[in-house]
Design goal:
alpha+beta; three-stranded antiparallel beta sheet; globular
């Protein structure tokens, strides 16, 4: 098997199943793929982007159904999602930031690039 094939076939996304008692469910929080990460980083570095838009941009590509592996939310759900329990959203955002490496420090550091 070639190196290319090994890379393309690797399961390289970090996944964590998280209990969200406020919603009575468990969700899988995943590392974003390269496309999603670039989009999230661009939004987080834009100081004109509203915080709720940035929160939705971080969470939508990160939250999956742990049983089916399907993405839970779409961009159309952004407004409804950010209207949910703030504690649950904050906890999930912290986990999503951790698995993605998109910490506040990393985003600030990237603003000069």
């Amino acid at each position: 098997m070639s190196i290319r094939d090994k890379i393309l076939e690797s399961d390289d996304l970090d996944k964590r199943v998280v209990d969200v008692p406020e919603w009575g469910v468990k969700v899988e929080v995943r590392t974003p793929n390269g496309r999603d990460r670039a989009r999230i980083t661009r939004l987080l570095q834009d100081e004109t982007v509203e915080p709720e838009v940035a929160l939705a941009a971080l969470l939508i590509p990160a939250l999956f159904d742990p049983e089916t592996g399907d993405r839970i939310f779409t961009e159309d759900d952004a407004d409804v999602l950010v209207g949910k329990n703030g504690n649950a959203l904050q906890r999930l955002a912290e986990i999503a930031s951790g698995v993605s490496g998109l910490t506040v420090e990393a985003v600030e550091e990237g603003k000069g690039d």
